[in-house]
Amino acid sequence: MQQIMEVALRDDSKSVDLIQINGSFTHTQGVIGTVPLVGESLKTRSSLYRSFFYGVRKFFSLEFQQFEIVTENGQKIITAGIAIVVLNHLKNGFMDKIFHIDSSMRDGKVTLVIFSPSSMFEYISLISLIFTNHKAKKTLPPSVGYIQSKSFTITASSSKRLSFDGANSIALPLECKVIPQAIKINANEEFWLENEPKDSSKETMKISNLPDSSESLKYMSKHIPLLKSASEERFKELFLILRGDAKTNSTYLVLMVLSTLLAVFGLFANSTAVIIGAMLVAPLMIPIVSVSMGLLRGDNNIIRDSLIKIGVGVILALFASSLLASLLPSFEITSEMLSRVNPTLLDLGIAILSGIAAAYSKSFKEISQNLAGVAIAVALVPPLAVAGIGLGYGELGVFLGAFLLFFTNLVGIIIAAILTFQLLGFSSVVKSKKSVGFIFVLLMAISYPLYLSTNHMIQKYEMIQKLKEHRFLVNNKYVIIDNVSVIFKGDIKILNLNLLVRESLDRSDFEALQKDIEQLFDSKLIIKAKVEYIL
DSSP label at 333? Predict the structure, then answer.
């Protein structure tokens, strides 16, 4: 208090500007429209928490309106937004935590900050900066613009009123101007350093982030959408690409055959590197992304062309892999093949995440090259190659398991890509609801066998852990169980074990060991054991 009194009683007062709004002065700000958690709501509540809940209530009533702004020099700006905030300066305010504007209480200018978020999520991202330790940047956020001039005339498309200083209100149109050196005050040196005199002759306009006069009519009297809508130019560009991707051509057919044959050799050789190479060559992800956009937008041509392209690719892959498997000498089923015949809910999760990544990558040309990485993650062709090998060998179980994995990937990617394109604003609603509903039904249908497989995987893990942790004493002979594998055949579980022993085991020892193992598990077991001696 003593320091404050010393400043207040100095005889070195300096002048600062004030803003006059329709003849009335404001030393803080005026707000046209509603800017929850940024505008007047934070000034009129007794605490930050009450301000927050007040702002949340206002949040869902946000509405665009068209603004016409005329500056001192006669510049006319027509735009749309949810609010305009009239400021004398930006120092030490809540907006100063979001972005930095070169303003001062002695610059002879009024600052108008226009808020025009394209979606609620964009607005939430904007105001979240207030409640974080964010250092304001000179770069404006995507939903904000500002204008600085000596005076403004503002009209709006609605009958909303201007509130200022948290109490009063004035009807539009609005006349606001700066009154230079309107009042003398005493302040500390830090205040004067932050509010140095500036040249007021030049007007400043930073409005590239705002809708222009031709776009502003689209926004009038509309509520902010939950999700951002993609621009017309961006949508057309992507739609043309996906329409071309849906067409079947010779390049696609050749790459499908080559990638499948490469995958078959990699699977037989048990080579992960070769299989990854096959994933990179495979073009099957492209029409799947196209059919997702077709279903979202209800474009029957894209849906038809994409499904034909997918179907042709699947038939080619199955034919090529089964033919090659039947021509090659008989090989045993490798671990790379076995890993693709028991899909689980984890594989569905991978497919969904891959679908999100694929749609997102395709939506932005600067990251579209990442589609190859998505193809590796989801691995569409190797399961088809395993299914073809199952056909060639006459192994129905191998075919069904591997094809279920492929179908899981296909459905998961389509569903995820549809939702991602919608979130990115390419359509506010799903146009082809029946088709998407059918895909959801397929998703539910395949989820059951995936759940059973996942449950089996968990049971296998628990059984293997129990057997590895347990130390068996059989007729005073120690037996260690190693290298356990479990195979499910209906209600029966087949255990393949390696037994490590120091003494030879006879028939009675094996029978005692069998009883000990069966006591650990409440199910039917068939035990196959291989004995290894520790010297």
Answer: P
Q: Which of 30, 32, 53, 211 is nearest to 117 (CA)?
A: 211
Q: 64-90 pLDDT, tens per residue? A: 888 899 999 999 999 888 888 888 776
Alpha-carbon gap, residue 430 to 294, rounded angstroms: 10
Q: Give me the pLDDT at residue 42, please.
A: 43
**Burial annotation 358-392 (CB, 10 A radius, 16+ → b, else e):** bbbbbbeeeeeeeeeebbeebbbbbbbbbbbbbbb
What is the rounded distance in angstroms from the CA atom of residue 330 to the CA atom of residue 332?
7
Triad 438, 441, 442: Cα angle to 5°: 90
Q: How far apart are CA 182 and CA 522, in angstroms?
A: 89
Contact (CB, 8 A) for 308 and 290: no
Tokens of 476: 């005073």
Q: HSE on the CB side for 141, CA within 13 Å?
A: 26
The pLDDT value recorded for residue 389 is: 93
Helix (H) or strand (E) holding 81: strand 76-81
Cα–Cα distance, 180 to 17 (Å, whole number) = 5
CA distance 530 to 535: 16
CA 62 – CA 81 distance, rounded (Å) = 10
Please tell me the distance from the alpha carbon of residue 531 to that of residue 345, in angstroms, as a whole number.
35
**Among 432, 431, 395, 527, which Cα is nearest to 472's?**
527
Structure tokens of 391? 């056909």
Q: Give the model's pLDDT for residue 72.
A: 92
Low-confidence ranges of the chain (pLDDT < 50): 41-46, 165
Cα–Cα distance between 369 and 387 in angstroms, integer?
A: 29
The CA distance from 468 to 484, in Å, is 8
Q: Which domains does the chain have, with CATH numbers?
A: 2-219 (2.60.200.40), 232-447 (1.20.1080), 470-533 (3.30.300)
Q: Which two tokens stand for residue 32?
A: 């046209």
Reduce the DSSP state of residue 134 to 3 states and report it: coil
Find all residues with CB under 8 Å of 445, minimum gap 6, and list them.
none
Question: What is the spatial distance between Cα 88 and Cα 111, in angstroms, rounded to a whole number?
Answer: 6
Please report the pLDDT score of residue 377 as a whole number.
Answer: 62
Listed residue (19, 148, 31, 121) closest to 81, CA to CA: 31
Q: Of the candidates 221, 224, 241, 243, which has an alpha carbon nearest to the alpha carbon of residue 425?
A: 224
> Which residues in 72-220 belong to E strands, given as ranges?
76-81, 83-87, 110-115, 144-149, 151-156, 162-164, 168-170, 174-185, 204-206
CA proximity to 525, closest of 488, 476, 484, 471: 488
Q: Phi and psi of 368, rounded to 5°? A: -65, -20
Residue 524, phi then psi, degrees to nearest 5 = -75, 135
Which two tokens mark 175? 């006349």
